[in-house]
Amino acid sequence: MKHTSRIYATPAFRNCVALLTLALLGVTLAGGASAAGPSRSPANAAARGHGPTAARGHGPTAARVHGAAAALHPWRPHIRDAARYAASRAGGISFGVRTRHVLRGVGVVRTVPSASVLKAMLLVSYLRRPDVRDRTLRPAERDLLGPMIRRSDNARASQVCNIVGTGGLARLARRVHMHRFHATRPWGLSTIDVADQTRFLLHVDRYVPRRHRRYALRLLGSIVPSQRWGIARVRPRGWALYFKGGWGSGTGWVDHQVALLRRGRRRLAVAILITSSPSHEYGKETLRGVAARLLRGLRPDSQPR
Question: Is residue 186 packed enough to be buried (19+ CB in 10 Å), middle (13-18) or exposed (0-12)?
């Protein structure tokens, strides 16, 4: 076909040439960018682990996690309020709250007779025994351990102590890194303090073999109603409570409570140890008053610090 200047001058031909030129220019630019290296756009930078998205975490999941953490409100125990109240009460009073970060309290290394608080350690010591830890508990064993914790049966506690011995209690104390605990007979005269008991209760489930963890927590979380005084009366809403009390047969000789409060992965431990109250009823009221002041403001969205 013979080409003439008239053909090149037609609008259709000029449009075709323009489109072809743009296409060739795009290919040239793309090749140049590849030779110079990857694009520095925000999307590509984030894909390589750089840029704004990576700096904040890794995508939407991290944003949700960070948002959930931001929704929690830092909380600290009200030690001064509790100390002022304790100073107005008769008897010797020591108490403390332990979080994952720190122990705060008053008289946290004062040693006192354990009374029935020791039964939580007896329970864990029994479940850690080599001939018990990896098998199902027998009905007779449940009948031994259940009443010892839930209704603080002393006869059953004596039986368990005869099985585990003071040596078993001492081994548990070493595992927990207790510093001032001393096991003796009769078992109620074993000595405890706030620092050691909060260290034990904060991760009490960790010291129980995995097979028996739910069982142990179920017992500590189901103390009979007639013994749910003190901290049980002021349990913060939304927090699960696992605790054990000890008292001197209604005399006021001792009135103790040790507890774990847990909400999801958040947790804190409390110990309130009272000696020489005028009466058991008086000691129970002191337990409630100290616990209420320590735990004031602890809400479902609190993050213990």
Answer: exposed
* Amino acid present at 277: S
Report the CATH architecture of 77-304.
3-Layer(aba) Sandwich (3.40)
User: Which residue in 95, 97, 96, 99 sits closest to 74, CA to CA?
Assistant: 99
Tens digit of each residue's pLDDT (9 = 90 or more) over 18-53 = 544 444 444 343 444 433 443 333 333 333 333 333
CB contact burial 38-48 (16+ within 10 A = b; e otherwise): eeeeeeebbee
What's the length of the chain? 305
Residue 59, judged by CB atoms within 10 A of its CB (0-12, 13-18, 19+), counts as exposed
Report the alpha-carbon distance of residue 24 to residue 262 in Å, rounded: 67
61: Cβ contacts below 8 Å, ≥ 6 apart: none
Using a cut of 0.90, tell me whether the model's pTM lies above it.
no
Alpha-carbon distance values, 243 to 117, 121, 232 (Å):
9, 12, 8
**Residue 305 exposed, middle or buried by CB count within 10 Å (0-12, 13-18, 19+):** middle
Q: How many angstroms separate the CA atoms of 28 and 39, rounded?
A: 16
